[in-house]
Amino acid sequence: MLETFLDYRFLFDIAVILLSTKLCGMLTRRFYMPQVVGALLAGLLLGPAILQPLFGFSVLEETDFIDSISEIGVIVLMFTAGLDTNIKDLKKVGVSSTIVAAIGVVVPLLMGWGIAAIFGAGENTLQHVFIGVILTATSVSITVETLKELGKLNTKVANTILGAAVIDDILGIIVLTVISSMADSSVSIWVTLLKILLFFVFVGVCAFLGYHLFSRWFSRSSKDLRRHVIVSFVFCLLMSLAAEVFFGVADITGAFFAGLILSSTTAQPYLNARFGTLSYMFLSPVFFASIGLKVSVEGMGATVWIFAGALVLVAILSKIVGCYIGARVCKFNHREGMQIGTGMVSRGEVALIVANKGYALGLMSDIYFAPVILVVIVTTIVSPILLKIAYREKKPKKDQPQLQS
């Protein structure tokens, strides 16, 4: 019986992951945090990070099967992120969101690079830069909920935050593309840059041909929409494969642009709903739990823990400073600049996706997963608090009675 159980252990692992991530997700939602944090906590609680040091065993361990499922999960996540991106809305957000996003990427990149170099978080400059790349990501899901609660969602500041967040992710993907392509030190930098250029040419050709072909096919076969999902998923997988194999670009970049190409087609709502369900029910929980399973506190000395605290501080300050500067350049006042800066602080799934990809490419050691996860959790908690402070109305000063001489 034991041998049979071990042969089918993967079924037990998946069942435990799905149940634990759901329960932890429900718990984190009670504290107004996204379920991503709950999935991370599930992986941390049941994996080697907590149970192993305390009791000498862990319920779950990282396996090849879980790694394969999580790889498909992250591809679908980025594909749906592309599907969710409205190109027309990107055009509407204008120059202000672009400037805020651009400076909001550059400052965290440089500050993350600097703090990694100071602490020696990596063996070479490229690994130091990659820590900065992780900090460029932004997740505004918690910001949107906070703005709704404050009644400030349909404002110029809120629209700037939302637009900048979308552009921020695209810029982050481009930076990841460059860094991941440079991971192979045996390849010339000029060859790498040429491959990146050819990749974007390839994306442009696929966008032109793919949009027209898919739009025509979707309109002709609108009765049976199920086949659209299969063909679209095949397109996503082939774009991911082409990006990784032929251009040396991260597969998730190919998946993102595949979703972006299909985002303007008539089938977008249907595709988004179907892939969203698949991701929510199965793939996303496995992926985020697998991040927690990669964390091991063994070998983490005092320096790594100090680095984790410093990285959290840099993650918060760099986004506020970068986006504040961008907002001020765009003629927002001081208060609005602080609102935009604090609204961009939260990191989330994109930071975890980038970290996971860097780990797979050898750009980050597993010992630095704990600091990255700490950044995601702390910024998720801190972001709504800072945002509410930034929106706090100043109480008018009471007139002081004049002293009579």
UniProtKB/TrEMBL annotation:
InterPro entries: Cation/H_exchanger_TM, Na+/solute_symporter_sf. It is found in: Membrane. One of its GO terms (biological process) is sodium ion transport. It holds the Pfam family Na_H_Exchanger. It is a multi-pass membrane protein. Its main location: membrane. Gene3D superfamilies: 1.20.1530.20. Residues 19-388 form the Cation/H+ exchanger transmembrane domain. Keywords: Antiport, Ion transport, Membrane, Sodium, Sodium transport, Transmembrane, Transmembrane helix, Transport. Signal peptide: none annotated. It comes from the Bacteria. The chain crosses the membrane at residues 36-57, 69-87, 99-122, 128-147, 159-183, 189-209, 230-258, 278-297, 304-327, 367-387. GO terms for molecular function: antiporter activity. GO terms for cellular component: membrane. Belongs to the monovalent cation:proton antiporter 2 (CPA2) transporter (TC 2.A.37) family. PANTHER family: NAPA-TYPE SODIUM/HYDROGEN ANTIPORTER, SODIUM ION_PROTON EXCHANGER (EUROFUNG). This is Cation:proton antiporter.
